[in-house]
Amino acid sequence: MKLHDLGVSLDDLAAFAVVAQSRSFTKAAASLKTSTSNLSHTIRRLETRLGYRVLQRNSRSVSTTEAGDELLEILKPALENIGTALETLEESRDRVSGTLRLTLTRQAYEAVIRPILPGFLAAYPRAMVEISIDYAYRDIVADSLDAGIRLGEKVEQDMIALKVGPELRMAVVATPHYVAQFEAITHPNDLMRHRCINYRMIAANAIYAWEFERLGQEVAVPVTGPLTVSEPDLMLQMALDGLGVAFILDHEAAPYLEDGRLVRLLEEWTPPFPGFYLYYPSRRQIRPILAALLSMLRSRR
Q1: Which family does it belong to (predicted)?
Q2: Range(s) for CATH 3.40.190.290 in the chain?
Q3: May I ask the CATH class of domain 168-273?
Q4: The CATH classification of domain 98-160+275-299, taken from the options 3.40.190.10, 3.30.450.20, 3.40.50.2000, 3.40.50.720
Q5: What is the mean pLDDT for each group of 10 consecutive residues in the chain (301 residues)?
């Protein structure tokens, strides 16, 4: 029969072991940072659920019964093993120190790192995190970085990669006023006749051609327009200001599509694609601080 079948908890068993070893409810209560009345209630509950007495007590002394002696002998090695395991975890926690250096885009920070950062810093008070917002490729090894976060298709083949987010989609958006002013957009090539907000890729020093796909047909459109930016967040702001058509991540556009400030176009041409991956060099040993981050990201995923 298992402990949970009896309704017995490890806390109750541990409390019994402390009382039995100290042979005093007062000393045991002080050690466990509880009151003697609470501790006495815990032992009574344990005995009720076990169906036999484990302690003999009177106004002057506490001793174990024969059944209590047997139970204590069984518990000792198990509780010692638990204590050793907790000490090991605490030592591991203490080893998570130093500075973790990450390179990522602002979108990756918002989607991946920002949600876990408070918990990470609370769990590892000796850890420091240095975040570099980059859109160009960074050489992790040459630049003394621990890891990077990029879209899956951008990760170098010689890196170990961990998927840290769901699939993403792009969205072609404009204000209702803009859509009402200009001719309809029913095919990606129609964008060539519109005021599109261009994005300059710093790494390639080139203007990004908007990429579309539908039923196996792929189309890359070198859009034109009066505005070009190197910061994706500006594309959203400019679209909201009615300055043209933007090509942005679907989840960034979602609140404005919902409240009607933006209209989505060409939805059937923007299928999902691989989302964000954290990548790091292929090494036999990784730093404890990076291992801790990877563990937290895996748990969240």
Answers
A1: Belongs to the LysR transcriptional regulatory family.
A2: 168-273
A3: alpha beta
A4: 3.40.190.10
A5: 62 86 86 87 87 82 86 82 64 76 92 94 94 85 89 73 90 96 93 94 83 94 94 92 96 95 97 91 80 89 66
